[in-house]
Write a structure and sequence with these properties.
Length: 175
């Protein structure tokens, strides 16, 4: 059966769409700059801090990671992986399955539709209405927490995880 493991999926915060900027290089917008730190606070309050973070190389994902991790005393190591940009479920699973077995909680920072589809693919069951919430919408800054048991990340398979939470943190506007 193996130890309890958690995959925490964080969709990047709301981005801006500046003229002439390549999609990969789009920065966070004002709401994203507020919501990314809120995501970090939510993860800390939920005792869901990762042992390792895997982050897309896109600017909006990198900045989401930086702002969220700045809310923690000592952020975990992060790996920026270009394969996470625009990845579909098989690509995301391939990256996750490379994670060393010593990692108990993994944070994945990336993009839709891949992240939403990954959560729906992995979750065999869910607490409360979490699965319905993901099916309805997995907006920017959304966090999904999947728990499962396995000796190795390679054991993570469709339908084997319990979706324990789906949270959409929002930062507060300053007047």
């Amino acid at each position: 059966m193996g130890p309890l493991r958690r995959l925490v999926v964080l969709r990047h915060a709301k981005s801006a769409w500046p003229m002439g900027v390549d999609d990969h290089d789009r920065p966070l917008g004002p709401r994203g700059l507020r919501d990314a730190p809120a995501a970090g606070r939510v993860l800390a309050e939920a005792d869901c801090l990762p042992d390792l973070a895997l982050c897309s190389t896109a600017e909006r994902a990198r900045r989401t990671w930086e702002l969220a991790a700045a809310e923690w005393g000592t952020p975990p190591p992060v790996r920026h992986d270009p394969r996470l940009y625009g990845a579909d479920v098989p690509e995301l699973l391939a990256v996750v399955r490379e994670v060393p077995p010593a990692v108990g909680t993994l944070l994945l920072v990336g993009h839709n539709p891949g992240l939403e589809e990954l959560v729906l693919e992995l979750a065999g069951e869910a607490l409360d209405d979490a699965l319905d919430d993901v099916r309805t919408k997995f907006p920017t800054s959304a966090i999904a927490v999947l728990a499962w048991r396995g000796e190795d990340w390679h054991d993570l398979a469709p339908g084997t995880a319990l979706l324990t939470a789906m949270i959409v943190p929002r930062g507060t506007k300053t007047p």
